[in-house]
Amino acid sequence: MKRLFLLMTALLFAASVAAEEPMVLRAEKCDLYGTLAVPESGSRTVALIIAGSGATDRDGNNRAAGLITDCYKQLSDSLVANGYAALRYDKRAIAASASPEITEAELSFDDYINDAVAWADLLAADERFDRVVLIGHSEGSLIALAAAKRTDKVAAVISLAGPGEPIDQTLRRQLATQPEPYKTECYRIIDELKAGRMVEDAPAELAALFRKSVQPFLISEMRYNPADEARMLRVPLLIVQGTTDIQVETADAARLFMAQRMARMVMIDDMNHVLKICPTTNPQQQMATYMNPSLPIAAKLVRAVVDFMGNL
């Protein structure tokens, strides 16, 4: 009987997340591709899940970098299981949304913000939905905060492991343990980019961070301060942060909360940056969660998000 119950539960859950449909957003120079998951019944609220930095796709994976988490797909599935629709998408120039008409050097942070706005407006025009909530993870949190100011179609914002300081400050913190002369050189480049100036002589060994083609994007992103964006937000905000995140600190969540005291902040013990449970900050054990798509996202995260959306 127990085995039959478990089988029925699994089948019911599978049915609840099976209603997925492809979505296409016609954007400048490219088409953006996403996946919309809609429950058979439930709330008329839809969440737009915005991915973090780098070539992270709509499911939360960047296979070239060894990142295979399925964390965004798991978040979408969890929302649908609780009666909420969810759209996740490949950002401009990433995965299915890559286009030969767009080079890395042409990308700007504002492109990502404007794309999120366009997706939100598209969902708001869908007669199946009455409310659009932006859920941004990591760098996607800043995209969500900025996008919410550019459209009146957003009902709320959820920041998951979102930075609370400008990216130039985050880079300085993350590079502080690098040996000399690399640290000083990194700081010099960051100062130039912050001032809006391209760096022609970035060393080849720093190309992963500061290659010429990525510098315009960094310059555009450095113009934004997440705390300032949170301060100017005029819709409800949920800030969720894990205590074992080795990429974004609990202090970042505190900065966002201090900027927007009307927000709700939830700290989740032992949750790391990819939204999985990892009770230690040991790099090897952390990386094991970054490469395990079968490991579920934190249950307390799902509860916090669902409770927040249910109270809108």
- How many domains, in number, for the residues? 2
- What is the succession of H and E elements? HEEEEEHEHEHEHHHHHEHEHH
CATH class of the largest domain: Alpha Beta
Structural class: alpha/beta
CATH superfamily of the largest domain: Alpha/Beta hydrolase fold, catalytic domain
- Biggest sheet: strands side by side, in what order? 1-2-6-3-7-8-9-10
Task: Report how far the terminal alpha carbons are from each other.
Answer: 39 Å
Q: Could you tell me the mean pLDDT?
A: 93
Task: List how many beta strands DSSP finds.
Answer: 10
Kindly describe this structure.
The chain has about 300 residues and is α/β, with parallel strands linked by helices. It folds into 2 domains: about 1-165 and about 225-310, 3-Layer(aba) Sandwich (Rossmann fold); about 165-220, no CATH class. The chain is built from 12 helices and 10 strands. The protein has helices at about 1-15, 70-80, 110-125, 140-145, 165-175, 180-195, 205-210, 215-220, 225-230, 250-260, 285-290, 300-310; strands at about 20-25, 30-35, 45-50, 60, 65-70, 85-90, 130-135, 155-160, 235-240, 265-270. The strands form 2 sheets. An 8-stranded mixed β-sheet has the order 1-2-6-3-7-8-9-10, with helices on both faces. It has a two-stranded antiparallel ribbon with strand order 4-5. Helix 5 packs antiparallel against helix 6. It is globular.
Write the layout of secondary structure elements.
Blueprint: H1 2-17, E1 20-27, E2 30-37, E3 45-50, E4 61-62, E5 67-68, H2 71-81, E6 85-89, H3 109-124, E7 131-137, H4 139-147, E8 154-160, H5 167-175, H6 182-194, H7 207-210, H8 215-221, H9 226-231, E9 237-242, H10 250-259, E10 264-268, H11 283-290, H12 299-310
Parallel strand pairs: 3-6, 3-7, 7-8, 8-9, 9-10
Antiparallel strand pairs: 1-2, 2-6, 4-5
Helix pairs in contact: 3-4, 5-6
